[in-house]
Amino acid sequence: MLQIFENYLRNIKGYSERTSSEYLKDLHGFARWIKHYYPSVRWSTLEREHIDAYITARASANIAPATTNRELAAISALYRYFQREGLTDRNPAKYMSRRKTPKNIPSTIPTEDLKQAYEHAFGLVKVWIGLLATTGMRISEMQLLKWEDIDFAHNLIEIKGKGKKERIVHTTSEALEQLRDLKSRCCVSGFIFGHYGQREMRYQIFKALQPFSKAKQLSPHAIRHTFATNLATNGVNVTTIASILGHNHIETTQKYIDLSQARREVANRYSII
C-alpha cells in the first residue's frame, strides 16, 4: 500500500524523489510505533487519539517539532490519498495541531563568497552555480531542465516546479552564455543534466563553495536562500519573490522579508560610517 502511495506522490502529485522518500520513511516509522504500542490498530482503524499519543511520545523523546510536523503531514497526505481512492471517508490527521517550531533564519552564503566561488568554478559546476544564483531554482528543478525550456534570445527559463507547476524566470546573459557553450559541445535534446544525480550535483557544488566560504551551509538550497534574501534586501515585494521561487504560500516567502529587515536594522544601528 505504501509503495503505491509513493508512486502516487511522484507521478501524480509531482513530488521530488527526496520528498516522497522522506514521506515513506516517516510513515514506516509511524507504522512501526503503532504496531508496537497498538498492535491491533490498522490504517483503517487508526483514530486521532493514536496520533495524539504518537505526538506526545515524540515530544518526550525530544524529537524536533519540525520533524514531527513533517510526519503529521505525511500521515495526513496518506489519508487524503485513501479518500481519493475511495478507501475511506475520513482523515484522522485532519486539523491536527502542529507543534510550534522555532523561527528559523534561512541559511545564506555571503554574496562575495558566492561570486568568488562562481568565478573560480569551471565546466558544469560553473553552469550549475550560475543558474542557481541567478534564478533561485531548486536543484531538483535544475535537474529537470530541457534545452527547449531555455529561451536564449530573451534570457528566460521555463521551470517545472513542485506539483508539476510551471513558471518562467529571468536569468543573466552570462549564465546563459555558459549554457550556450555547453550546448555547442553536447546533445541538443532531452534533459540538459540528465546524466547527473542530485547527490553528485550537491557534492560538486559544495566542493566548489568550500574554499571560499565559511557559511554554515554550502548547498544549492543555501544559494536559493541567498538569492531570495538579496531580492528582499533590494526591495522586491513578497508576492514577486514568491512567484519567482515557485512558492504556493506567501507565508513561506515572508521569512526572507523578515531577514532582510533584520539585516537593515543591524546595519543602521551598528554602522561605523
The arrangement of helices and strands along the chain is: HHHHHHHEEEHHHHH
The mean pLDDT is 84
Name the structural class: mainly alpha
Largest sheet: 3 strands, antiparallel
Number of strands: 3
Overall geometry comes to elongated
> Roughly what fraction of the amino acids lie in strands?
under 5%
Q: What's the N-to-C terminus distance?
A: 64 Å
* Percentage of residues in helical conformation: 55-70%
| Largest sheet strand order | 1-2-3
Q: Pick out the low-confidence regions.
A: 266-273
Rg computed from alpha carbons, rounded to a whole number of angstroms:
22 Å
Tally of individual helices: 12
Strand-helix topology:
Elements: H1 2-11, H2 17-37, H3 48-60, H4 65-84, H5 111-120, H6 123-135, H7 139-143, E1 150-151, E2 156-160, E3 166-170, H8 173-185, H9 198-209, H10 220-233, H11 238-245, H12 250-270
Structural summary, described in words:
By secondary structure, the chain is mainly α. 59% of the residues lie in helices and 4% in strands. The protein contains twelve helices and three strands; from the N terminus they run H-H-H-H-H-H-H-E-E-E-H-H-H-H-H. The chain has helices at residues 2-11, 17-37, 48-60, 65-84, 111-120, 123-135, 139-143, 173-185, 198-209, 220-233, 238-245, 250-270, and strands at residues 150-151, 156-160, 166-170. A three-stranded antiparallel β-sheet has the order 1-2-3, with no helix packed on it. A hairpin with a 4-residue loop joins strand 1 and strand 2. Helix 1 (2-11) runs antiparallel to helix 2 (17-37). The chain is elongated, with a radius of gyration of 22 Å. Mean pLDDT is 84; it is low at 266-273.
